[in-house]
Amino acid sequence: MNKLPLILTTARILVTFPVAYLMTFRVNALDWVAVVLFILASITDYYDGYFARKYNAVTNLGKFLDPVADKILVSSILVVLLFHQKVDIWMVILFVARDTFIGGIRAAASADGLIIPAQTTGKWKAALQMIAIPFMIVNELHPSFSNLKFGYGLLWFSVLLSYISGWDYFKLYLNEKKLI
Question: Which of helix, strand or coil describes residue 145?
Fold first, then answer.
């Protein structure tokens, strides 16, 4: 059972590719399969951490791969949504820029022997993205409810949270290094 968290994290990465591939066809039935796979992959984000703590299987590799798996899943699907013109290019640029910045902070922290734990705002950001994206993938669910607009609004809110959490990570690193 101590390998289960890493298996779930790896599965989240691997499921990204069929989800993105299915979305390229722009067929409603395939979009629904993509949504189901995306939701299942998103659920692994909770359970890999849960099982790592439950079975005392927290590893440095797991701490590194978990946020990377999230970024691979979300960024890949955002690129496909950008290709389908369902999201703005600036939304994707802001997410990629923030994630690259945080990757640099984590790399610097790791080189300094520090581990910066996930922040609450970052967890909320990831949760909002994983809720919003299925709404963006599928066509309108009902004529009186614009799931595309709902998902789009949630994604922009997650952009805001991503920059708040990015600032939190940066301050934590500076504080740990006694630079502030």
Answer: strand
The mean per-residue pLDDT over the stretch 158-171 comes to 95
Closest Cα partner for 57 from 4, 12, 14, 119? 4
Right CATH for 4-176 from 1.20.120.1760, 3.30.559.10, 1.10.290.10, 3.90.110.10: 1.20.120.1760
**Residues in Cβ contact with 166 at an 8 Å cutoff, skipping those fewer than 6 apart:** 98, 101, 102
Closest CA to 38 of 128, 155, 125, 131: 131
Q: What is the Cα–Cα distance from 151 to 145, expressed in whole angstroms?
A: 11
Confidence at residue 36, expressed as pLDDT on a 0 to 100 scale? 97
Provide CB contacts within 8 A for 59, sequence distance 6+.
5, 6, 52
CA dihedral (47, 52, 53, 58) positive or negative: negative
More confident: 41 or 122: 41
pLDDT above 90 (res 81): yes
